[in-house]
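[job 0417] fold request received: DUF4166 domain-containing protein
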Amino acid sequence: MAAGSQEERSPYQAVLGDELAELHPRLQAYFSVIPAGHHGFGRGVFDMVGTPRRWLWPALAVLRRAGVVFPVWQRDVPFTVVNRPAADGAGPAINADRFFALTGGGRHMRDRIAADGSGLHDRLGFPARLDTRLEASVVGGALRLRSTRVTFLAGALRLTFPRRLAPVVELTESFDDTLGAQRVTLTVRAPLLGTIYQYAGAFDYEIRPGEPAGEGK
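[job 0417] inference complete; emitting structure tokens
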């Protein structure tokens, strides 16, 4: 693993180590540490968000208020993302806020991804409602994340899904040289049900100085 203190590394650097250099150069910049006093800002369009299986929407609505998932099926959805460096006690972390310009009103998704001794974990929602352990790998210059454990959070309650019943979250971040933009694809699959939620799209991203001033809204 590459040397450096926690303050000098992003969660991805802490987990991937030398594998980070196998990412596309633009992704190396995206997943490296955000300098102090700066933030990351991205803007793009999702090809699709949600699920067309409307009978799943009531279940997804339970997590809507916490900004985890949304009971919709929409295409060509503009979005922005703001990434901020943080600390998680056990290791480096990043706070990410995504703003979806959905028909019928904007929606805000928040997560905090951190690295500790067991790898990456992502806490989604405000307040946090899901804690997802993630396995990271580099494939063809792209980063792939796959959940290995999913825990539901509600106050003091922590309910870890048994492996045979747990939803599986898969996320791929790649760079499209032809388009000149970063691509992201997320799918959530459940046993017996198949895909229950997804989004996919492309965006431009840069590091900006200072604090974001309502950029994502």
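[job 0417] notes: The CA atoms of residues 74 and 103 lie 8 Å apart. Residues 1-6 have pLDDT under 50 and may be disordered.
[job 0417] exit 0
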